[in-house]
Write a structure and sequence with these properties.
Largest sheet of chain A: 4 strands, antiparallel
Protein name (chains A, B): CRP-like cAMP-activated global transcriptional regulator
CATH superfamily of the largest domain in chain A: Jelly Rolls
Structural class of chain A: alpha+beta
Keywords (chains A, B): DNA-binding, Transcription, Transcription regulation
GO molecular function, one term (chains A, B): DNA binding
Oligomer: homodimer
Organism (chains A, B): Rhodoplanes serenus
GO cellular component, one term (chains A, B): cytosol
CATH architecture of the largest domain in chain A: Sandwich
Number of domains of chain A: 2
Amino acid sequence: MNTPSPGWLAEFSPLSTLPPDERAILTGASASVALPADATVFEPHQACGAFLLVRQGRIRVYQLDRDGNEIVLYRLGPGSICILTTMALLAADRYSAFATTETAVEAVALTDTAFETLMARSGRFRSFVFTAHAERMADLMRVIRNVAFESIESRLAARLLALAADRRALSITHQQLAAEIGSAREVISRHLKTFERRGWVSLARGRIEVRDAASLRRTAGPGDA
Amino acid sequence: MNTPSPGWLAEFSPLSTLPPDERAILTGASASVALPADATVFEPHQACGAFLLVRQGRIRVYQLDRDGNEIVLYRLGPGSICILTTMALLAADRYSAFATTETAVEAVALTDTAFETLMARSGRFRSFVFTAHAERMADLMRVIRNVAFESIESRLAARLLALAADRRALSITHQQLAAEIGSAREVISRHLKTFERRGWVSLARGRIEVRDAASLRRTAGPGDA
């Protein structure tokens, strides 16, 4: 069990303002965790007692259906906490979420006991944990709105823009894009071909180039994919 | 502010085993709440400080898209707690859920202060609250799986069977059924007509009669709608 490098608390702003005695509990019971890319953080029916605080890198949380189709629920980046590890202990049988590192991840793991102590003792720690829960529920509600109410075309356009951000070319397969928006690979390939025909994107193996962001933006509409 | 009738704690089994001092906090800070059917319990951007424990009746929690299409997220019955009322305070702007009573509802409202006191003081109360959070997250994940991965036909068949339970005739409009499974009314009407043609249901205004449950069950498949 390695002690995290000093100053890690400053990366979690709600925690850095805790009084010294509560910060001492946090730092005294935390271990540094380093995970490579594509490592399993969480699987259904797998009990994991530690409470994870992400310092660097990105974790993808997703579900699989019985045919192995994936849908992305949310991502955790620096400053986030992974609530599934603690929640799963409570509603174990009903969970079907997986979590995998998308990049190398550095995290801090807090022991169960310290988590319980801080929940009992610190109103600010409780509010930090509850805020994370509320944000994850809001994430799930956003996924539901998108999947239930937005057309595949508008979700795909919104997703391409979000993933591209300020780059023009994306390294992503049609299968991965399907997971991002909860659809099937064939459906995504068909829509991408339509987008290409309209001159909005160029397609190559494992690569998509955005050529007309303005048209994609109009198609994406005011949604929040 | 009315005091709830004695013995209400026994209806929430995890709470009835709290030690006397913690039970005294609960009973001392709780008020009886009676709501008629179709009353608003919760709306986006509406701050509601109380923590609600449902004793009788049923609350429907749902989202609306910008065209007013509804999708049901989950229902709360006797013994449940409504976590949205507390969660919304934390992630206020990002929530888009509504809650409405489906029947007359009797509930107990706990003050914010008592909620905070018990969260600080009682490990069992915390576990009761976290379990409710975990169950609601599991509910949202189930909705996502259903909407993303199951065909409308299999979701509709599963929903008809679940709503009918041991009755044969359902009083429900196509619009309401659409909300149950996150689809549009026209889509539902088209599928219901197909079901009727196959002899699985009979349709009348505001009413659906199940005539071939076995075929509906085969269509519903092993999913968990």
